[in-house]
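lol ok so funny story. i was supposed to be doing the assay writeup but got distracted and ended up predicting the structure for this chain instead. priorities right. anyway since i did it might as well share w the group, maybe its usefull for someone
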Amino acid sequence: MEKLIITAAICGAEVTKEHNPAVPYTVDEIAQEAYLAYSAGASIIHLHVREDDGTPTQRKERYEECIEAIKKRCNDVIIQPSTGGSVGMTSKERLEPVILKPEMATLDCGTLNFGGDEIFVNTENMIKEFGQEMLNMNVKPEIEIFDKSMIDMAVRLSRKGYIKEPLHFSFVMGVNGGISGELRDFVFLKGSIPCGSTYSVAGIGKYEFSLAAASIISGGHVRVGFEDNIYLEKGVLAKNNGELVEKVVRLAKELGREIATPEEARKILGLKKGV
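and the output, tada:
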């Protein structure tokens, strides 16, 4: 079985210091949280950025600042900017970090109800636009999947040349409006991806560690971090992202999976070291 790639989603766009005071906003805070996650065993940093007051932004200048600060502390880590941004951002805004030509970036393959009146919009034409831009910049997409239909969309668009194979999926499970975080649904998604694909699982909230264990056992990879869950266990706030990564490392050890270094993760995903 391949070594386990751990991705740390260190801040997201929605969680705030009111939820957990350790959620990073500033460049220094983001770099420190990335370092703690990396030191604990994460080989990929899934990166959203904020202004100093916590406002989500996709400005490439802010991404550049944060990437530079992270690389000073953990030079070989894979940095994976989000093109999801936050609800209401335009395609142009969301694509800004891709201009920096990172090794990877996320590609959301469908529209989702986020609750209330919030809709995370990803039309077919938007997905084509994002996929083509990533091809142009030689950026490997991590295909974010919130429901099974999004796998079908990704496969169809890959056949049309908008996404390059082999495909790498991220199953984001337990989001309001998306597929649940039950084991039954994980098995369904895993069985729906094309042969030769790789996948990682991000369980939201209470699903984080149960789905991490399921993915570890089944040969997949794992994402944890404040974007998805702020608790180390029920009622206990995590002090930092590193604590969440450490818990996955302990699970992996118990279940017989070794942890991939960034260079080993690059080989598994077919990456070449970039930004």
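The two ends are 29 Å apart (CA to CA). The chain has a mean pLDDT of 96.
back to the writeup now i swear
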